[in-house]
Amino acid sequence: MERRNLLKVIGAAVTATAVGWDEAAYASEPTMTTIVKILGTPYFNLLGNSLLSTGQQLGVQCSMIGPPHVDPAQQVRLMEDTIADRVNVIGLVPLDVKVLEPVVKRARDAGIVVITNEGPDMDGRNWDVEMIDNTAFGEAMIKTLAAQMGETGQYICIVGTLTTPLHNLWCDAAIAYQKAHFPNMSLATARFPGADEIDTSEQVVRDALEAYPGLRGVIGFGANGPIGAGNVSRSRHLEHKLAITGFTLPSPSRALIENGAIKEGFCWSPIDIGKAMVGVAKLVLTNADFHTGMEVPGLGPAIVDAANKRISVDRMLTVNKQTFDALIATGL
User: In angstroms, rounded to a whole number, what is the distance separating the alpha carbons of residues 276 and 185?
Assistant: First the structure.
C-alpha cells in the first residue's frame, strides 16, 4: 500500500506521522484497511481512532477509508483499490451485502482476510464481529418508543439505506415486536432511508410530519437518525408530542437528551468495535483456534458461532439522562 494512502481517516486529518509511521515496522507488520459506510461522523471518528490505537498495540498497520456520502458503489470501488494495494486484511462495514459480495470474493481469492462488522449475512468473509443481539436491539427500541407513545399512534422508521444489513434487521425486529405486543400502534408508511446523515434525517421527519399529521414516534436506526429527528422536534417544540429513539451516541445527542427531544436511545461502543475487528484479524493471521469463550484482545471472552462465522459479545448500552455522563466519560 502506498504511504499516501495509509491514513484516509474520517474528518480528523490524521497523518502517517501522527500515528508513528515506521518504514521497518511497515515492512514486517501485517496491514489492515477498514472500509466504513461514511466518513466524518462521530461514530466512525471513534471507530477510526480505535482501529489505529489497537493496531499499534497488536502490531498491525491499520488505516480506515470510506465514501463521503452513503453509496454502496463507492464502497465497491474502495474495496477494489484496497485489493490492488495488497493489504493482508480488509475490515468492512457494508452498506449492501449483495453489491459487495463479488468484490469480497475477489479479496478472498487474492489471499486477503476479510473481517466484517454489521455484516452477519455477508457471504465470503472470514468472520463477522457483532457487539449485540440484533433482535433484542431492535426490540429494545420499539419497547422504549411504545412507552413514550403510551402504546398508541403512528410511528416511522429511518434506516441508513434500504440495503444496510443491520439497520433493516433491527427495523424488522422492531416492527414484528410492535405488531405482536402493541396493536394500537402502527407503522405510518414504509421505512425511509437517510439515518446516516443528519440533514437527510431532518428532511425525512419534516416531510413525515406534514404527510402524517398524527405522527407520534420516530425510530432512527443509523447514528444520525435520532439526532436529525431530535433537531426537528426541538425546533418545533414537539418534545412532549413526538417520541424519538434509535441508535445514538451520548456525546452527539447530549443536548437533545438534556432538553427531552430524545428521551432514550441505544448504542454499543465503536471503540470496542475497533478493538474487536483488529483483534479478530490478528487471531486469524496467527492461526488461532476459534471457540466460544476465547479471549478477543481488548474485549475478553466472546461467543463464537463457527457455522455462521460470527463472533459476538453482549455490549448493548442504554443512553438517557441517567447514563450519558458515565458513558461520555468512557470516550463516547
Answer: 38
pTM of the model: 0.85
Strands (E), 134-247: 153-159, 185-187, 192-193, 215-220, 243-246
Three cell numbers written together for 144: 422504549
Count CB-CB contacts under 10 A for residue 42: 19
CA dist 269 and 132 (Å) reads: 10
Residues 6+ apart with CB under 8 A from 179: none
Superfamily for domain range 134-267: Response regulator (3.40.50.2300)
Specify whether the CB–CB gap between 278 and 58 falls below 8 A. Answer: yes
Instruction: Tell me if the domain spanning 3-130+269-314 has CATH number 3.40.50.2300.
Output: yes
Write the Ramachandran bin of 38: left for phi over 0, alpha for psi from -120 to 50, otherwise beta: beta
Instruction: Give CA–CA dist 63/28, Å, rounded.
Output: 16
Name the nearest CA neighbour of 71 among 9, 161, 10, 8. Answer: 161
On the 0-12 / 13-18 / 19+ scale of CB atoms within 10 A, 262 is buried
In the sheet that holds 310-312, the strands lie side by side as 61-65, 31-35, 89-92, 113-117, 127-130, 310-312, 303-305
Residue-wise pLDDT tens for the chain (332 aa)? Answer: 333 333 343 333 232 222 233 333 444 799 999 999 999 999 999 999 999 999 999 999 999 999 999 999 999 999 999 999 999 999 999 999 999 999 999 999 999 999 999 999 899 999 999 999 999 999 999 999 999 999 999 999 999 999 999 999 999 999 999 999 999 999 999 999 999 999 999 999 999 999 999 999 999 999 999 999 999 999 999 999 999 999 999 999 999 999 999 999 999 999 999 999 999 999 999 999 999 999 888 778 999 999 999 999 989 999 999 999 999 999 99
